[in-house]
Amino acid sequence: MPNLSKTRLLFVFLFFLTALFVLLIRLGFLQIFKSSKYYSIAQNQSRALVEMQPARGKIVDRKGRELALDVRLDSLYAVPREMKDAQKPILSSQLSKILGKSREEISTHIDKDKLFVWIARKIMPAKAEAVRRLKEPTLGFVKESMRVYPKGQTACHLVGFTDIDNNGLEGIELHYNSFLKGVPGWRLGQRDAKQRELISKEVEMVPPVDGYNVHLTIDEVIQSLTERELSATCEKFNASGGSIIVMDPKTGDILAMANYPLYDLNNAKKSSTDERRNRAVTDLFEPGSVFKIFTLSAVLENKAVGLDEKFNCEQGSWAVAGKVLHDHHGHGMLTFREIIEKSSNIGTVKAAMRIGAEKLYKTIKQFGFGDRTGIVLAGEVSGIVPSPKNWSRSSIINIPIGQGVALTPLQLASAVSAIANDGLLMRPRIISHIDDNDGRIMKSFDPEPIRQAVSKETALQVRSVLLGVVSDHGTGKKAIVKGFKAAGKTGTAQKLLPGGAYSHDQFIASFVGFVPYDEPKVVITVSIDEPHPVYYGGDVAAPAFSRLAASILAYWEISPVQVPSEVVKDANGVSKKTKKSSDYQQELRPLEPSPQGIGAGR
Asked: Residue 94: inside a domain, yes or no?
């Protein structure tokens, strides 16, 4: 019996000794060969890596007024794994009332077996305070940036908007997202056994780099005036849409770019794709009679016709190239100047035939039509200007009067700015520079001359004719700006239907002009889509130009008096006045008519 007890004791002793030996071997294996793995797991359990979001850069106007900025708001999260099951329905009901969300949506989140779930992102301070009063330990907050647009609808098609994570989706927000977004940082801290961060135990931190600020060329006041005028005009004439562009002809700066309809940037998700379209750069239209400005420029640049040379306008009906060309009002003999002032299709085509397709096409291209302007906005289209080799027999009739070509409102504003700028075409500019919060410039966009579209002499001649358009005897008399001399051109274009025919009840009414005449400060292009029942450019778009131009000049505090001539010094250093373009108009002698017959160059 005693021997049996000893045997049992020995067996038990050897068993535990073997077990201890195995445990020692296992422990040694873990300590030596698996130490790095389990050290990493321990570190992950005890450390908190928190991403630190940068502040998105601001978008401001030319005077530094904020159009888009970031504010810091609370985002609410929960720790479902620490919640009691009986507590969850009560908490869902409480949060539903505070946040304005359904109980089902909140329950979906807190029923998950997770240590972290979002309940609501970027909530208003009043709601965050109401949640804090619940004193629920399984709820917490993280500060996040929210994009805010303090001007609401102002410049909505230019500025664009972001998503919930501050990524740009439209406009400048999208196109310059990489500059605006910044670079995230991170903070490495310690966590306790319940996975709560110990702020006092911070281990390491890399601060975020805030995004850069984008400075636009637009003036927020002029933009607001422009949007108000555009909305009022479109609503008055029941238009489906429209665009107005205000441009500085000397620098190419876009002072305003408005589209109708507008939408609220702070509630962009409620807007449609059509409402968000920047029509000024994405929409093509046949310009109609405003295009006669460039036919006039081509004829004068090639010295084919004098402004006082007369043409027979056939009393408003002329059979040519197998078609009958009509004028809105019948005229007999008109000078070339009067042809443009009264917007005669017949007279314009007869003058264009003097130079032919190649020279007309060359001048049109010199003004930038058929090519993108190069403005830094997404979605810009190039337009349509067919090469003469693709012209049909009737192209020499259609193109001079603005049919058979297609352009954007921005291209039109840019081209007319060249006329107002002594023939020099400037690249449209919407951003002046990008800088950081300390004012250091990261990227600059200087005014950029493209080319001399036409000579200064031609530009001054064209300006003198456009002055006559905006007069009591011209088609643009409703564009007159009280106290100032203005110049411009009306246009009423039939819209092209899908089948290729022109509509008889859908039109685009337009006007483009500049003011003051002697020293143009601003070019304004007005384009109204499908106005009715009134649809003529002189009745719809010209008055909008007049009112907007007057408002801008008043904002600039430019007095309604004659703008003085330029003052230069002669060779002896004595100051003297140079001739203004209005003086030039009076002293121009008619150019010798071309010996070529009507229709030459077809």
From this structure: no
How high is the pLDDT of residue 110? 85
Give the catalytic positions in this structure: 289
> Which of 140-154, 169-183, 289-303, 483-497 has the lowest average pLDDT?
140-154
Percent of the chain predicted with pLDDT > 90: 61
**CA–CA gap between residue 487 and residue 520 (Å, rounded):** 9
Model pLDDT, residue 523 = 98
Per the structure block, which two tokens stand in for 293?
Answer: 């400005």
pLDDT at 83 over 60: yes
Q: What is the dihedral of CA 244, 250, 252, 255, to 10 degrees?
A: -40
pTM of the model as a whole: 0.79
Contact between 347 and 292 under an 8 Å Cβ cutoff? The reply is no
Rounded Cα–Cα distance for residues 247 and 226 (Å): 12
297 in the same domain as 423: yes
Residue 99 lies in a domain: no
State CA 260 to chain mean position distance. 13
Strands 317-320, 323-326: parallel, antiparallel or unpaired by DSSP? antiparallel
Nearest to 151 by CA among 280, 65, 23: 65
Contact 585, 471 (CB under 8 A): no
Three-class DSSP category at 6: helix
pLDDT-derived band of residue 91, with 50, 70 and 90 as boundaries?
A: confident
Apex 500 CA angle, 494 and 503, nearest 5? 30
Same domain membership, residue 562 and residue 448: yes
Which CATH number fits the domain that encloses residue 58? 3.90.1310.10
pLDDT band at residue 467 under the 50/70/90 scheme? very high
Residues 281 and 148 in one domain: no
What would the mean pLDDT of 513-532 be, rounded to a whole number? 96
Total domain count for the chain? 2
Cα separation, 127 vs 122, whole angstroms: 10
Give me the DSSP letters along 275-320: HH--HHHH--B--GGGGHHHHHHHHHHTT-S-TT-EEE-GGGEEEE
430 and 554 co-located in one domain = yes
- Is residue 182 domain-shared with residue 235, that is, in the same domain? no
Per-residue model confidence as pLDDT tens digits over 545-598: 999 999 999 999 998 864 444 433 333 344 444 444 444 333 333 333 332 232
pLDDT at 204: 67
Which segments of 139-291 does DSSP mark as H helices, in order? 156-159, 171-175, 177-181, 220-236, 273-276, 279-282
One domain, residues 297 and 157: no
Contacts (Cβ under 8 Å, ≥6 apart) of 315: 330, 331, 332
**Tens of pLDDT along 357-366?**
999 999 999 9
Q: How far is CA 72 from the centre of its chain?
A: 26
CA–CA distance, 411 with 323 (Å, rounded to integer) = 30
Please, which residues bridge with residue 325 across strands?
318
81: helix, coil or strand? helix
Residue 48 in 3-state DSSP? strand
Hey, which residues does 509 pair with through a beta bridge? 492, 528
Helix (H) / strand (E) element for 470: namely none
Domain identity same for 317 and 394: yes
Residues 459 and 348 in one domain: yes
pLDDT, tens digit, for every residue of 10-55?
777 788 888 888 888 877 776 777 667 666 665 565 565 566 778 8
Domain span holding position 478: 220-587
489 near 509, Cβ under 8 Å? no
